[in-house]
Amino acid sequence: MTDEQATGPPAEESAEIGELQARVAELEDQWRRALADFDNLRKRVARESATQRDAERARVAGLWLPVVDNLDLALEHAADDPSAIVEGVRAVRKQALDVLAKLGFPQRSDVGEPFDPTLHEAVAVVSVPDTAAGTIVQVVRPGYGDGEHLLRPTAVVVAKGD
Amino acid sequence: MTDEQATGPPAEESAEIGELQARVAELEDQWRRALADFDNLRKRVARESATQRDAERARVAGLWLPVVDNLDLALEHAADDPSAIVEGVRAVRKQALDVLAKLGFPQRSDVGEPFDPTLHEAVAVVSVPDTAAGTIVQVVRPGYGDGEHLLRPTAVVVAKGD
């Protein structure tokens, strides 16, 4: 019994030390791998962020090429038939508005709407009979986009109170 | 001596167990924090990636607004003076090419250059006296960008060998 008491605990403790040392080695390995994963993700993100921005720039620029092509065509045809250019340019303008709408920035139509400082920029206030104060009576420069994604506010003339 | 041999090691081993347990707790904590950092970075990246793409889309779209504004102006003035529109539209076209160049996609000028399949798209091959085979003799549709960032290849007519 005395022998067992003397040697028993050390044997158990040695085993426990062995287990703990193994656990330490395992955790050190897991920790190091987690740090490496983090670092790799950080590097990948820096690389991909620039790539994605470039890709989006090229995508959006590419959508405008048909507009530029049609401007070229309108100008070429103008040499033969100057009166045809107005129709051609109207079509190009329509196409440009379609591109903006496709990108999430449709042209706003604000006439008759109440003035909203988050969407509109008042350039003048005028007296208009039978019109509620703050009603938009004229668009001076069109705005594009909506409340969530406003590309440019509409420059407007607003009715003064009667 | 027998006593020392029996009790000495256990005391030392107990101390070692205590140290190892503390090391295990510390490593578990560091590992957990590294995992949490990784997860947070992953989530932040997903969020910011969409935000950055949106921002780049809006930035590029915004560069085209003056072009659209000037198309509008050219059309407005056309009503008063139809002949003025050609000059106006030429200016708008120049402005559009400036926007493309600013985005990193200048219009290419390829006439006289040797055909390069990474930059050009041959739409026809013609016999041209005194011109080396493979020389670009005409641009059918302009290309934009350079070798590194080509937005669109130039559609060209190429000289056949004599």
Q: Please give the largest β-sheet of chain A.
A: 3 strands, mixed
Alpha plus pi helix count of chain A:
2
Instruction: Please report the first level of CATH classification, the CATH class of the largest domain in chain A.
Output: Alpha Beta
Secondary-structure element pattern of chain A, one letter each: HHEEEEE
* Beta-strand proportion of chain A: 15-25%
Oligomer: homodimer
Describe what you observe in this structure.
Chain A is of the alpha+beta class and 162 residues long. Chain A has two domains: 1-103, Alpha-Beta Complex (Hemagglutinin Ectodomain, Chain B); 104-162, Nucleotide Exchange Factor Grpe, Chain A, domain 2, CATH 2.30.22.10. Chain A has helices at 2-80, 84-102, and strands at residues 120-127, 136-141, 144-145, 150-152, 154-160. In chain A, the strands form two sheets. Chain A has a three-stranded mixed β-sheet with strand order 1-5-2, with no helix packed on it. In chain A, strands 3-4 form a two-stranded antiparallel sheet. In chain A, a hairpin with a 4-residue loop joins strand 3 (144-145) and strand 4. In chain A, helix 1 (2-80) runs antiparallel to helix 2 (84-102). The radius of gyration of chain A is 35 Å and the shape is elongated.
